[in-house]
Specification:
Blueprint lengths: L3 E5 L5 H11 L6 E7 L6 H7 L7 E5 L5 H9 L8 E4 L14 H11 L1 H17 L2 E6 L12 H22 L3 E6 L7 H12 L7 H22 L3 H5 L3 H43 L14 H93 L5 H93 L2 H12 L22 H6 L12 H4 L26 H38 L10 H34 L14 H13 L8 H7 L20 E5 L18 E6 L6 E6 L5 E5 L3 E5 L1
Parallel strand pairs: 1-2, 1-4, 2-3, 4-5, 5-6
Antiparallel strand pairs: 7-8, 7-11, 8-9, 9-10
Organism: Laticauda laticaudata (Blue-ringed sea krait)
Pfam families: adh_short, FCH, HR1_TOCA, SH3_1
Family: Belongs to the FNBP1 family.
Amino acid sequence: MAVRNVLVTGCSSGIGLALAVRLARDELKRFRVFATMRNLEKSEALKEQVGPALDKMLEIKELDVTSEDSIRLCVNSIPQRRVDVLVNNAGFGLIGPVESQSMASIQNLFDTNFFGLVRLIQEIFPDMKRRKRGHIVVMSSVLGLQGLLFNDIYSASKFAVEGFCESLALQALKFGIRISLIEPGPVLSEFERKLYEEAASMDLSGVDKETLDIFHNFYLTYSKEVFTALGQSPEEVAEDQFDTIERHTQWGLDLMDRYAKFVKERTEIEQTYAKQLRNLVKKHLPKRTSREDPDTKFCQYHAFLQVVKELNDFAGQREVIAEDLLAQICVELSKDLQELKQERKLYLQEGRRAQQQLENSFKQLENSKRKFERDCREAEKAVLNAEKLDQDINTTKADVEKAKQQANLRSHMAEESKNEYASYLQKFNHNQNQFYFLEMPQIFNKMQEMDERRTRRLKGGYRIFSEIEQQVMPIIGKCLEGMKAAAEVVDEKNDSQMLIELHKSGFKRPGDMDFEDFSQPMNRTSSDSSLGTPRGTLDGRLDPRLLGKNKGKRWLFSRKNKTVITEDFSHLPPEQRRKKLQQKIEERSRELQKELDQRDALNKMKDVYQKTPQMGDPNSLEPKISETLGNIERLRLEIQKCEAWLADAEKRMLSNRPDTVTHYNRHLDPASALNNNCSHEKDSPDTTHSNESQDTLNQPIYTEFDEDFEEELASPIGTCVAMYQFEGSSEGTISIQEGEELNLMEEDKGDGWTRVRRRSKGGEGYVPTSYLRLSVN
């Protein structure tokens, strides 16, 4: 351990002298003491008490705290100006009525007690700040905490010291410098003796009688009694007290145990918090996500799942904090606490044993002293009695001799008691020196090292408490950033469009309901029959698709019956059925390709085995090849079946379109029109046959309405090119060839079909939109 330089002021007497001696005679030689005083002529007491440590562990220097030059000269004389510990003890007192104090004495008091401290710190504090360490010990007083009668000026100086040090300590902490204020009570020293001597002889002529009476007859009288009864000796102030250290070390262990319990409760809170978060995640996170679940199509649902997953990771970090706190602080501190308790118990036993030995030695000394005192009294009494008998003429010679023998015996016993007392006194002094200068310092040093070790471990516990939290903060930050990123992914437009795509039915919107007039009978003529042919086919029969139009309406808020799920998805609306079938075909195609790749791989492996039999038996692959071929055949059948269902679904969607009804114009074949008209008349029971009717049959059916059908054909809205060949076998469709250029007549309305017209032949019909590359004008 490095020797620390200690500068102590005011060492001519009192606390300064006792402290300098105590530090210089430290058994471990930890301190190099620079004892200072204003007048070196008063250093004899210090030299006498420090003994052999003088010039080895203690140097006496001149220093006047009221002079800056004296302070600077003293500090410069210390090697490298290194002062590790500054003990400011210099000062003097001033008591009495305030009106009796001169301004010169008041200024002198403040110049020493307060400004002297400021000068010392101004000189030494910068060096401590550069070294980032140091300790300043200031001897204040209880009168710096509370005023006392007739100590007005002295209390003011100590109050100034208290305020100055408390403020300076805030700055000193930044540089690793400690400032300690010592506030002793009454101390029996030369300082107090001189103070009361000066007070008794001071000029009080200007003081009123009542105040004078209180000062002389009350304050001075009772203050001396208080100091005599309660005052400490300077040695007691400087001495390390065993009971104080015992209480402090116990307090330190209690604090350590309290902190360990505090951390344990924190871990329980973290564990409970993490558990509740885990339960929350488990409650809201689906056990398994199905691809068929429509919720998985929406980005807001994926964002919610991501937030829940990030929260799960967040809960995991809280568990990490709890585990690390428990392992690195609670367990370690509890282990250290048990070790320190045992170690402290051992040191306290050693201290009490040393105290007991000293007490036993003192009791022996007291017993021998009392015996010596008793024997001396008895011997003196025996001698007086012998002298008395010797002078008495009536006493026989034998009585005189007997009295003299008794006196000699008592004197001899007194001498033996004296020798015994001297022996016990020498033994006690030796034991006392051993106790105060060897045994107790060693015990105190051990307890100090133990307490400092406990403090370091507690300090480490405080640091780990925050470091564990800091270690997981980046991960927690990533969890929070993940939640934020999940929020940024949400696109309300995309989700709205996804909802439309998922629930697009392909049904035509219902038209207006026709008015049915029951108030007039319906008079149908042949012309009415021919001109009022219902929408649908020209033979007068309604298109079954139109007849079933109202029946197939799906009202927006109508009650829905429970849907029976079928394999071909026929329970779904046309558009949704088509999408499901296409999705299923794609999935089966991927599975088929996987099985085909596996078949090829097995065949290659079989060829390798056949060429190099040592690598394996080709027959062992036959079961797997057979299984793969079976899977291929099964998947092909499923694909064919789904394609057939898809073709049927597309045919039904095409048949539901109103634009697929055959369009007729004035170029219609008259014969076919005639046949259709006759058929219509045949189906009308109210129609009568007449010559007028027969004449009408010899003319084109739409002759008188030619002007209404003289419109030109609809103009195309764009062009397109067929990317694939299409047979067009169903009603309303046309066949196209790959690469054929077509006119675009009508865009896809959401059912997957587009109406086109050939450029050369003039044919018009529907083809799949996915087969075309469009160019809309």
